[in-house]
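Section handout 9: paired folding examples.
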Amino acid sequence: MNFNFPVPSHEAPTAIRRERSNVARLAVAQALAGANSTVVYATGAVVGDMLAPTKALATLPVSVFVVGMAMCTLPAGAVAQRYGRRATFLLGAGSGVLAGLIALLAVLNASFPLFCAGTFFGGVYAAVVLSFRFAAADCAAPERRPRALSAVMAGGVFAGVIGPQLVTHTMNLWAPYLFAATFVGQAVVAALSAVILAGVELPPRTAMHLNAGRPLAVIARQPRFILAVICGVVSYLLMNFLMTAAPLAMKLCGLPQESANLGLQWHVIAMYAPSFWTGRLITRFGASAIVAVGLVLIAASSSVGLLGIDVVHFWATLSLLGIGWNFSFIGASAMILECHRPEEKARVQSLNDFVVFGTMTVGSFLSGGLLSSFGWSTVLMLSCAPLLGALLALIGFSYRPGRTTKLASRGEST
């Protein structure tokens, strides 16, 4: 992975080296920490199906994972505002270790509530991990922020390999407890991520960052912010909605767990591999255009899934879904960077993530019941309405490029 961003010659070499080191560390941490989410998605519905009192609750552990993400975002933003992002990173990694250990105890004791508690802490960790992208933007000059943001997201490519392979090679090691060794590995990987994050050198906080800034209600009324949140919500909602149901749908279709693991591996790789280019594409064509392409690709993934229930259909659906999420979510994140002053960043970014993850919880809760009651095709078809709404929002929210950024810097709202 190349972290040698082109920089102006007048910038201090020390600052440039620090920026590149921070982005590299955050990308490595993203690769390690991203395996946490992959493990939960690969095992959550399957273990839930084994432990839940009814089949309709099979995807509840994944839904609880999303609840953990939603509930953590605003507190994480408050901690980052008060004590700095590094404190938030280490608290998140600690939650990742707890997630693996609690899930291990749940499997050993056949406890469904305990397993849900483990996935909750996994969600807390995942919410903190998603703030890595904004931390990378904090470390870079304004003109390099989309590149830094996408470079860290590119670390997820390796998470796409680490997570599924961790599941595949450990799930049967602790017989007869399926996935017990996997959750031990999940805790170890989270601890290693904490070691990497401890070396990140972020810009120092000042009194301005603690006390200044406009009220969130003023910022949230900006059309550009509203559009960014809508696109972020829809992209993450549908990605989670379909990815939560896919492993269980493959099982119900008689496909082996190894095929589901490999499908998730390609899905996560597809989620993050485009990040090597997404920042450049945003810089060249604009965030809105990249978001639109991403939403169209998510629609294509649903269409492919409706063509059949063979392994190739599931894999193609998950791969297109991942690419579409990458374009639409990173594009929406780049829009958020245009909507706040430096001293407002932690509060605004955490508000955005709270809305995204909070709404995503709805899709996660619905996916299991809809899959059990109506089947995989219905789950796919229901994704059309949110996609259409987001595309119409992109068309309807007209704005002049660059205007929002200038107004935000002066403390005005659009």
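Moving on to protein 2 of 2.
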Amino acid sequence: MAERVGTFDGVHRRNLSKLLGLVHLEGPLSRARLTQVTGLNRSTVAALSAELVEAGLVEERAPDPTNRVGRPSPVVAPHPGVIAVAVNPEVDAVTIAAVGLDGAIVVRERHEMDHLVTPAETAQLIADVVERWRSDVLRRARIVGIGLAVPGLVRASDGLVRLAPHLEWTDAPLRALVEEAARLPAFIGNDASLGAVAEHLFGAGRGVDDIVYLNGGASGIGGGLIVHGAPVGGSGGYAGEFGQNRPGIAAQGDRRAAGGVLEDEVSRERLLGVVGLHAADEPTLAAALSGSESPEVADELARQRRILSTALANAVNVLNPSLVVLGGFLATVAESDPAALAAAVAEQAMPAAAEGLDIRVAALGEDRLAIGAAELAFERLLADPLQEAA
């Protein structure tokens, strides 16, 4: 949207965006708190809130009980009926969720696949699920769009999936296919990059400005970067492909794939194999690994942890983050012995680069990719509530 900087309309729209963004990120806030945070006067905040209520984007609730003198301030909260559909296609399943503007996962379905799903099949599945939900659990919802977290290289300029190697997609026009099938605007990003955004805004990286995020999924390992508080995508949007780096393996007995990349060695498939599972969602695999007393399972976790520590040390040396966040099966590998992982990273990284480094698992768990994908769909609404409400 073009606007004349400094005009009343431009300032008004930015103030609406500021208020909506605050309650989206922070959750329900009193009008008094919004006045304090924005620097706007009370009457302006009240008018902006009323406009957002009228647009169906927020709701005002009765104030929390208080013992303070004076009239308590009403609470402004995101309207729970404003929804984004979030999709994560993978080699073993397509997961589809409805995510509220308030961050709640309203409904989630995992559709197991016995073959590699095609872009066209993905688009039709999304359309069918959304149509069914609209007559049931989302019958009163306002769906603003569809966000897709894809395990591959997604061109930032137009959302073309240049390469999703494990899905065997090349130059897939996924956005156009989804929009045609579901009749909703669609937005596409790399799954790990979206996981990094979700953890930065709402999870383990909240309030942290320099983060390296690694995501372990069925398609391997991807990564996302937050530098000075902003996502880094690179010139084409392909930054963060840690899984394609050649791992340093100190003990040759640890190598399983001759000439393989990181995701060939630190592998969800190998973890499934040692616990005797063919396929599983994240909680099921984590429970199977943590509940096993098999020496083979312990040895494989330790092997993957050693190789992962070298990859993380390299990332720390290059990027000097204050925080590393691990999601998916990488969180399970880390949690098998967090002290050993931290010590191995510190031993291999330059001491100055690793000073103050913290390693955490993703706080959003299996919700992280859905929340990240939903942020794509909410982006235009948050930037200009009036335009999207029109």
